[in-house]
Every structure is written in C-alpha cells, then in structure tokens.
Amino acid sequence: MASYILHKADTRGHADHGWLSSHHTFSFASYYNPERMQFGALRVFNDDKVAGGRGFDAHPHDNMEIISIPLEGDLEHKDNLGNTEIIRQGDIQVMSTGTGVFHSEYNANKDRPVSFLQIWLFPNQLNVTPRYDQISLDIRDKKNQLQQIISPDKDDAGTWIYQDAWFNMGLFDKGKEVNYKVKKEGNGVYVFVLSGSFTIDGQAVGTRDGIGVSGAGSINIVATDENAELLIMDVPML
Questions:
Q1: How many Å apart are CA 110 and CA 224, to the nearest integer?
Q2: Is there a smaller number of Cβ atoms within 10 Å at the N or the C end of the chain?
Q3: Residue-wise pLDDT tens digits, 107-134
C-alpha cells in the first residue's frame, strides 16, 4: 500500500544570511528536524537564492552525489579537478564527490540573483574517483511530458550518477495528465513543485511543496495550473 508524506512550502527550514536565502526540505546546517532527515537516498534538498556577486567559497565534499539545477540566473563553478564552468537555467550539473572534491559556487552576475536547487544523494558506491558532468536541456522536451535528466545509466538520456535514481522534469498545461511508473522495485518517488499546482494521486500540491510517495508502482499526476512545472526524483528507500 502506498504511503505519502507532504512537505508544504512554508514548513521548510529557512536560513537568511543576507547574501543567501536558503529553504531546506530536509535537515541541513543549523536547521534540524528529526522527522525530516531524508527521503530514502535523498539527503539534502535546498532551494537557494544567492545575491549578485556572492557565493560559497571553496569547501570539501566526499562520498555524495551532488546535483545543481539553476532556475534563474547563472552559477559559476570551480573545483580542484580543473573544471571552471558557468551553469545556466536549463543546465544540470552533477558531481560524484567520491574520494573528495573541493569546489566553489558563485553567482556569475553582479547585478541580479541566481536561484538554484542543490540536491545531495547518498551514492551506491563509496570512494569512487571524483567526476564532474554538465548537460544542457532542450525545454521543448519537457513540454506536456516528462524529460529524463538523470539516471544510473551512462548511455541513457540525461546525465548519470552513482545511484539507482532517476530524475525527470515536466512543464504542463492545465488539465494535462501523466502517469509516472516507478523505475525500480523498492524505490520511492519525491515530487517537488517548481511552479503552479498539481494533484499527485489526488492530493493537492502547490508551488514549492514536496510530496514523497513510497510503496507505489506508479503515481498519477494532473496539472491544475497553466505552466505548472515539477521535478520527480525516483530514489531507493534504503
């Protein structure tokens, strides 16, 4: 039997550092909620906005799959692997931090903020050689359908990570319906609404709400607003 957990947008943790406004779906930094530690392999889901010219100085990570999805503006990435990149709206960035990575992330523009999702997943392999990947998406591929952006398969659509997880994005007209089939037995699905509103298996979710579904073979998704956009994360429940 399917079970559901609803995280309304206004119940998330929030940190305001002046230059950074960050909403935390799960416990992170100074926000601690023992009932919101993770959803399966999904450990961190931060909805960040960084002021012009500001950002995160170089800092380390290891044994985590880190995904950045810019929603507005441009993000400048540098790391000790030799990557210096600009990540823009429509791009997906992935780091498999493995044995260790030092990186920094800055707003590439002085005159406007950058908004992006920062997502961490526990990997299914430890101490791998660190890697960086970045792809650009075609917005037409997510109009009224699901566009796969991440999978475990190097040869599949989108980019890949060291985890049996699949990410999809979709931008829908009002009334459009789609059925998402869970990719692997034992996985759960966490849906985050980027804009507009939907029903997920009949449950209403709005902008910046998240809903986790476990124990289901598929979920039914109906857009209840125009230009309603969501991110679906299909992850092992560990």
A1: 36
A2: N
A3: 999 999 999 999 999 999 999 999 999 9
Q: Phi first, then psi: what are they for 234, rounded to 5°?
A: -100, 105
Domains of the chain, CATH where assigned? 13-136 (2.60.120.10), 139-236 (2.60.120.10)
- Whether 61 has a binding-site annotation, put simply, is yes
What are the phi and psi torsion angles at 139 (to 5°)?
A: -60, -25
* 224: nearest Cα among 191, 182, 189, 195: 195
Residue 77 counted as an annotated binding residue: no
Each residue's pLDDT tens digit, 5-39: 999 999 999 999 999 999 999 999 999 999 999 99
Q: Is 229 annotated as a binding residue?
A: no
